[in-house]
């Protein structure tokens, strides 16, 4: 996220963005950061820790 903010070339002077991992179940919406700042989180904590969901 810091890299996205430092390299932002748009015309906004400020904004509030959620900055979390790309978890399977997110507690916050990161759509705004993805669309406006090209934020692309790299990790999913559920996958990192090998958690498997049961149907």
Please summarize what this structure is:
The chain has helices spanning 2-6, 31-37, 45-48.
Summarize the SSE layout with pairings.
Blueprint: H1 2-6, H2 31-37, H3 45-48
Written description of the protein model:
- 7% of the residues are buried.
- The termini are far apart.
- The longest helix is centred in the middle third of the chain and has 7 residues.
- The protein has 55 residues and is mainly α.
- It has one domain.
- The model has no long low-confidence stretch (mean pLDDT 89).
Instruction: Note the main sheet.
Output: none
- Portion in beta strands: under 5%
**Mean pLDDT reading:** 89
Note the gap between the termini.
33 Å
Keyword list:
single chain; 55 residues; elongated
